[in-house]
Structure formats: structure tokens, C-alpha cells
Specification:
Elements: H1 2-14, H2 25-30, H3 39-46, H4 61-64, H5 69-82, H6 92-96, H7 98-113, H8 124-138, H9 166-174, H10 181-199, H11 215-225, E1 231-236, H12 239-242, H13 246-253, H14 260-271, H15 281-286, H16 308-314, H17 333-356, E2 383-385, E3 394-400, E4 403-409, H18 412-429, E5 441-443, E6 448-450, E7 453-460, E8 463-467, E9 473-477, E10 480-487, H19 489-498, E11 502-503, E12 509-510, H20 521-538, H21 545-567, H22 573-580, H23 601-604, H24 636-648, H25 650-663, H26 668-680, H27 688-693, E13 695-697, E14 704-706, H28 709-720, E15 727-732, E16 735-742, E17 745-753
Helix pairs in contact: 5-7, 5-10, 5-24, 7-8, 7-10, 13-17, 16-20, 20-21, 21-22, 26-28
Protein name: 4Fe-4S ferredoxin-type domain-containing protein
InterPro entries: 4Fe4S_Fe-S-bd (IPR017896), 4Fe4S_Fe_S_CS (IPR017900), DNA/RNA_pol_sf (IPR043502), Domain_X (IPR024937), GrpII_Intron_Splice-Mob/Def (IPR051083)
Pfam family, one: Intron_maturas2
């Protein structure tokens, strides 16, 4: 310390940086060389050392998180929906964004441990490992399917791989293992980058493995657009979901994406072999099961398995939704890659639909040359009036995963020609051999099975009312066909039999559900109620919703009655219903005279309440949902994106302004600008109309002021609606009209009379 003071003293005395001045008292007060300065100030001056600010480290994970990952993803969706047809060549910049890697870590951790991990809860070591994984991917050092050497591990993985025995290491290297945690992270990042690119390009005819496009959407589209079709081609292309050649997948991917690092990363995931266990399925069946299996105790951070009701409902998955593609080490990228490959088929079919359309003037419904306009009764789209002999030739197409459905309005020969062309297209594009049996042509009268629902036609004779010339309302009997979408009861019985809930074909007999034998009556009823609620939602758009749900309720109720009869030794279902009531809401273990009545037990906290089974009567089951489905439907998130892009476009703002001028209105922004400008230019004389309409001169200060309380209210409304450019305000006399601009028109929704 003394050496430091001495050196600094010599340097300062030789080259004094500050010249004392007697004229400035403030300077002399804080200057250690000034007269009257004490020794403490002198010591402080010479002991001062300059503070050097630390340069931020570019490799520090905290410095790399500049934005929120969700905002980065939102910007990607907006950019791709704004220009959906552009070639994407610079995706490595998004691959460098550390925010996306943190967001992927949060999503994968939620799947691994069953709970969401906030960004503030991620440890420093996890962020450093995540950064190392990102750098390994960018430097081409990342390897898919690692078994022992990991850059980052799952939070629940506590295994010390360095201390494993040779036997365990050999088992890890030669048997089937779940995908590594770091592979899932890379897959998630690639998925977040590629999904917005292709969602903006995918056809509106595909509905599987896409957000907000589920089986219910397919059924509603079929009810809306497939009315009046006579011939149907139902195709099974699920062979494509099992896997395609790497060259075909990469050529389909490079049609829109030209980033070399992304392409190489996905190609490496497809080419790298997946290690599977050498044990065959037959040898697995021959293995003896342990007689007594201990119950597995879950760890604290281990997610719970699916509950029984959800597992049972998954057993009802239709044939079209059973298969999920899994290609190499792509993981969650596999469904997206399958849709990318099958999108070429969708585009080819859209061209065929346009070429096939041939309108007829004598047709009642489809007679416009374009074929895109709303025609017929839009509130009852499944009804098609009977046309003459010359009908419009029309076709529609829909795809759910690897299954397609084509509806044709025309002769069967046209359907046969289209099937031949489809077989040739699949052979050339996907190198798969299809035949007439895999693409059957069926008439609507036989019933078309799709997603466990049957499409059939019924002839109806409704009373048609319309307004003739002169304003007369005419009612007359009509005839037409009605497209009916009904749930397949045969398929429902088949699924129940597969789950061991019943046996027998002609007269299904419920079987006891012994998997719930050790559960309480309250828990068992609650599980089955959740299952029945899910079944009611699954058959929501079926015409026979009440019938099929009533059958499901009968099977579940009979199965539980047999279970309770065996569990409580009541011998028959009739005795169970007698004690437990029709909905099994009464306790079956109650003994009279030894305990209070059951109604008082839940209040006393001595018993848990038992909910009765739902939908035990037909009147309790809701009706089918016939809500009209718009022809140009799109999911809610796509609507929001399109609307945001339209409002962000300067042309939209100019159209709104021109609409305001045409209507003679004043926007809140212009009104505020007018008021502020008029208040500021006091010296400039305004025209008499503006003075009379907006302002008067104050007799005290001679400034422009609001003429009365009415103008003050207008000014306040202008301030309130300043942030809403789609609002407009008109001031006329003692009336204020507020309106909203939408689609080039003004809709008045508020009027204030003062």
C-alpha cells in the first residue's frame, strides 16, 4: 500500500493532471491540492484506482438469451406466412439462436419429468451443456444415437456411465434404448424451425400430424363438402409412413429448403442406423412371466403413466390414426417429413380436381364456371336436391395421414381412370406398388367407412320454401339426397372386444373389468366416467351419437356390475343394481345398523363421495353437433396470422383511410392531430367553419379552447381510441357516432346523443 502511494505521488507531482484555480470554490473544495484540504482527501485521491468494466463474454449463456424463445418462433411464423412461396436458404441463423435451444429444453423437460421448467429455474450447468450442444451441432461434431458419451443429459438421468460394468455397457450398446435426451433437443429445435415453413405451404386437403387439424375436422369437412358424390375411392398409403428412401425424402425437403447445414443434419439422422434388440417377437412371447410382480415405485421427478381411462380410450383409435411414422433418428420430425413427402400427392390431386370440374347449367347446385362460389343451401350443406340427367362432374379429395378419400360425382369410368393415374403417380414418385384392391371404388349406397364413421346416403322429401317473384312465399315438396355420417356400431363392438370388455358377436355380453379390482368404488366410477365423457366427445359429429354412446354406457355399466359382483360377492348384476342403484352411486359395502347412513358419511369425512355413472339413460346423452362448417375454414392460429399480416400491411391502412374519407368520417388520430395543431397555432386565423365546429376563443386568455363540454368529450374519446386504428368517429351536431372498419366497410355500433 505504501509503495503504491509513493509511486502515484511521484507521478502526480511530476505531471499534475489538474491545475488548481482559486476562482472556482467548488473546485477548491474537492481538490486535494487546494489550500485547506485535509490529509484524508489527499489519501483518497492517491489511493484511487480506475475501474475497468468487464467485456461481456460472447460464450456466456446468459448473454446469448436476448429475447424470449416464443417471440422468436412467432416472428418465424409471421415471416413464412407473409411470403409462403419463397425459397428458404438461411436457416443456420435460427439454428444459432440460443433462445430456441432454451425453449426446446423446456419442452423436452416437460415431456421427460412431467412438469414445466421455467427459464429462471434452469441451472447454470444445464445452460452451459446446452450451449455446448448447440456449438457441436454448428461445428458438425454432433452424432445421432449416442449411447455412452453425452453432451447434455436428462435432469432425471443420474447414471454414472464411467462406473458401469462391461455387462451393462454391452446391454446398452446392443439392445433397444429410448432416444437420448440430446437427440430430442436437436429434433425439437429442427421442428420449431421447419414447421412454420411448411405449414404455410401445405395443402388445405391434409389433416393429420398438423396443429388444430384432427379427425373431427375431417368429419366436418366430409359432411360439408362431400354431399352429392356417388363414387368413392378409399386408399391406404400407410406404407409410406413406414419409411421411404433417403433420396426421395431429401428431394422433397430441398424443394423449399436450401440450407446445407439443416439438410445435412436431417440426412445424417435418416442414414445413421438405429440399434435394436436382436430378440424376435416370438421369443419374447415364449419368455415366462414372473408369477409375482412387485409394484413399481415412481421416482419424484418421474412422470406418472397414463390413467386407465385414457389408456382404454387410446385402444379405440381408428385404423387411420393407429400408425405414427418413425424414421431413423428423426423422432418428432418424422410426421412432418411424411407430410412433406405426401404434399406432392396433395398438390397433384388439387390439379386433378380443377381439371375434372365440368359444370352443367341444368344442375341445381354446382353450375358456376369457377366452382368455388358458395352454392346451394349453406346452412344445410349435406342436402343435395335431385338434378336432371345432365349432372355436374365434380370431385373432391381429403387425406388423413397415409389414408386418402376421393369423392366423385360422375360415371364410374371416371373413377376407374383416376385410380389408374393415381397408381402410376405413386409408382413414379414414391416407388410403391399399388393395385386395384388397395384402391377400391365403392358406391355411396354400400356405405364408406372412414375414421370409424360410415358415410351413407338417404333419400329425403323435405318441404322447400322460397320467395317467388312478387314477394310470394311458395312451399312445395322436394326430393333429394342427404349425406349421413354415422358412427359404426360394428367397429365399436370390435374395439370393445379387443379391450376384453365383452365377448360374443350377435349378443354382446359385458365382461368384468378385473384391472380395477383393487381400486375403490369411487375411483373406479370416476375413471369410467372420464372414459364415457371422452367417448361422447369422440362421437360428437355422428348422426347416431345417442345410440352409440348409450351402447358404450351399457357395456361399461355391465362390466362394472360384474366386477362389483365378484369383488363384494353379490353373485349377480341384479343384486348389484339393487344395492348400488342404476348408476352404481350407492356404496356396495354398507352394513345397516353398524354405521350412520351413507348421506351423512361424506359430511363427517368418514367416506369419499361416489359419483354415479353418467349417461345411464338416453335422455342424458347430448344430440349430435350440426354446427355449420365454413367452406374456407382455417385453424384459429392461421386466421390470427393472416389477420395480423393484413393489418400490418400499409395497403390495409390506406384502404381504411380511403373508406373513412368516402364515408365522411374523421379518424381518432386525425381528430387529435387537428385539435393539437389548432391549439398550438394561436396566432394563425382559422376558417370560420373550423372555428365554429371545433374551437372558440376564450374571453380571458384569448386562446383557442373547446367550445363546450361536448367538444371536451370528443377530445377525450379521441385520446381513448388513439391506439385502435380500426375505429372511426364522426362528430355531427349533438351526435357522436363511433364505428369499426372491417373489410372496407364501416359498421356503426355506438351513438351518443347529447
Amino acid at each position: 500500500m505504501h509503495r503504491r502511494i509513493t509511486v502515484l505521488t511521484l507521478q502526480v507531482l511530476r505531471n499534475p493532471p489538474i491545475t488548481p484555480s482559486q476562482k472556482n470554490p467548488i473546485y477548491s473544495q474537492f481538490n486535494p491540492f487546494a489550500r485547506g484540504a485535509n490529509g484524508l482527501a489527499f489519501f483518497r485521491f492517491f489511493s484511487f484506482s480506475p475501474v475497468h468494466r468487464r467485456v461481456p463474454d460472447s460464450d456466456d449463456p446468459a448473454n446469448l438469451m436476448k429475447e424470449d424463445g416464443v417471440s422468436v418462433c412467432s416472428q418465424m411464423w409471421i415471416e413464412n406466412f407473409k411470403e409462403p412461396d419463397r425459397l428458404v436458404s438461411n436457416l443456420t441463423s435460427y439454428l444459432r439462436r440460443f433462445e430456441l435451444w432454451v425453449l426446446a429444453y423446456q419442452k423436452v423437460c416437460a415431456d421427460e419429468i412431467g412438469s414445466y421448467v421455467p427459464r429462471s429455474s434452469i441451472t447454470r450447468s444445464a445452460l452451459e451443456d446446452l450451449l455446448a450442444l448447440r456449438n457441436a451441432v454448428l461445428d458438425n461434431r454432433f452424432k445421432w444415437g449416442a449411447r455412452l458419451e453425452f453432451i447434455i443429459k436428462s435432469p432425471k438421468d443420474k447414471t454414472e456411465y464411467e462406473s458401469l460394468s462391461k455387462r451393462k455397457i454391452k446391454a446398452i450398446l446392443t439392445t433397444t434404448q429410448p432416444a437420448p435426451f440430446q437427440d430430442k433437443l436437436v429434433q425439437e429445435v429442427l421442428f420449431m424451425i421447419l414447421e412454420p415453413i411448411y405449414e404455410a405451404r401445405f395443402s388445405q386437403k391434409s389433416f393429420a400430424f398438423r396443429p388444430r387439424r384432427n379427425a373431427h375436422t375431417v368429419l366436418r369437412v366430409i359432411r360439408r363438402n362431400f354431399a352429392g358424390y356417388l363414387w368413392y375411392i378409399k386408399g391406404d398409403l400407410s406404407v409410406i409412413l413406414d419409411g421411404l428412401k433417403v433420396g426421395l425424402v431429401m428431394s422433397a425437403l430441398m424443394r423449399d429448403v436450401r440450407d446445407k447445414k439443416i439438410i445435412d443434419l436431417i440426412k445424417l439422422a435418416l442414414v445413421t442406423p438405429v440399434v435394436t434388440s436382436p430378440v424376435d417377437g416370438e421369443e419374447k412371447k415364449k419368455k415366462k412371466k414372473r408369477k409375482y410382480q412387485k409394484k413399481k415405485v415412481l421416482a419424484e421427478d418421474e412422470p406418472k403413466p397414463d390413467p386407465y381411462w385414457l389408456e382404454t380410450f387410446f385402444g379405440f383409435a381408428p385404423e387411420e390414426a393407429e400408425k405414427l411414422p418413425s424414421w431413423g433418428h428423426c423422432g418428432i420430425l418424422s410426421p412432418l417429413l411424411a407430410n412433406i413427402c405426401l404434399d406432392e400427392l396433395d398438390r397433384w390431386m388439387e390439379g386433378k380436381i380443377k381439371d375434372f370440374y365440368c359444370p352443367s347449367k341444368s344442375d341445381v347446385i354446382w353450375n358456376s364456371p369457377e366452382g368455388e362460389a358458395e352454392q346451394g343451401n349453406t346452412s344445410w350443406p349435406e342436402f343435395v336436391p335431385t338434378s336432371g340427367p345432365d349432372k355436374t362432374r365434380k370431385m373432391d379429395y381429403i387425406r388423413y395421414g397415409g389414408h386418402i378419400l376421393i369423392g366423385i360425382r360422375g360415371p364410374r369410368a371416371d373413377a376407374a381412370t383416376l385410380r389408374k393415374q393415381l397408381i402410376e403417380f405413386c409408382d413414379q414418385k414414391y416407388m410403391i406398388k399399388l393395385d386395384n384392391e388397395s384402391l377400391p371404388i365403392e358406391h355411396i349406397t354400400k356405405g364408406i367407412m372412414f375414421l370409424d364413421h360410415v358415410l351413407c346416403r338417404r333419400v329425403v322429401y323435405p318441404t322447400l320454401r322460397y320467395t317467388a317473384t312478387g314477394g310470394k312465399i311458395i312451399s312445395e315438396k322436394g326430393v333429394g339426397t342427404l349425406l349421413s355420417v354415422t358412427a359404426s356400431l360394428k367397429q365399436c363392438i370390435k374395439q370393445f372386444r379387443k379391450l376384453n370388455f365383452l365377448k360374443g358377436d350377435r349378443e354382446p355380453d359385458p365382461q368384468p373389468c378385473f384391472r380395477m379390482f383393487h381400486a375403490t368404488q369411487a375411483h373406479t366410477n370416476a375413471q369410467m366416467n372420464k372414459f364415457l365423457s371422452t367417448m361422447v366427445e369422440w362421437y360428437r359429429y355422428a348422426d347416431n351419437r345417442k345410440k352409440v354412446v348409450n351402447f358404450c354406457s351399457y357395456i361399461i355399466r355391465g362390466s362394472l356390475a360384474k366386477l362389483y359382483a365378484a369383488k363384494y360377492k353379490l353373485r349377480s348384476r341384479a343384486k348389484v343394481y339393487k344395492i348400488g342403484a342404476r348408476n352404481l352411486s350407492r356404496p356396495l359395502k354398507e352394513r345397516k345398523g353398524q354405521s350412520p347412513e351413507y348421506q351423512n358419511l361424506p359430511r363427517m369425512g368418514l367416506a369419499e363421495s361416489i359419483d354415479g355413472l353418467q349417461y345411464t339413460r338416453m335422455s342424458l346423452i347430448p344430440e349430435a353437433d350440426y354446427t355449420p362448417f365454413p367452406s374456407n375454414w382455417m385453424p384459429g392460429h392461421e386466421k390470427a396470422l393472416v389477420e395480423y399480416i393484413r393489418l400490418d400491411d400499409p395497403k390495409t391502412l390506406e384502404e381504411q383511410r380511403s373508406c373513412i374519407r368516402e364515408q365522411g368520417l374523421v379518424s381518432p388520430q386525425d381528430y387529435i392531430s387537428m385539435l393539437v395543431w389548432n391549439y398550438k397555432r394561436n396566432a394563425i386565423v382559422m376558417d370560420q367553419l373550423s372555428l365554429d365546429r371545433f374551437c372558440n376563443r376564450c374571453k380571458y386568455c384569448n386562446n383557442l379552447c373547446p367550445s363546450n363540454a361536448f367538444d371536451v368529450l370528443c377530445w377525450l374519446l379521441g385520446v381513448l381510441f388513439y391506439l385502435y386504428p380500426t375505429l372511426a368517429m364522426l362528430k355531427h351536431g349533438g351526435v357522436i357516432r363511433l364505428g369499426r372498419i372491417g373489410d372496407g366497410t364501416l359498421s356503426k355500433f355506438y351513438t351518443l346523443n347529447l
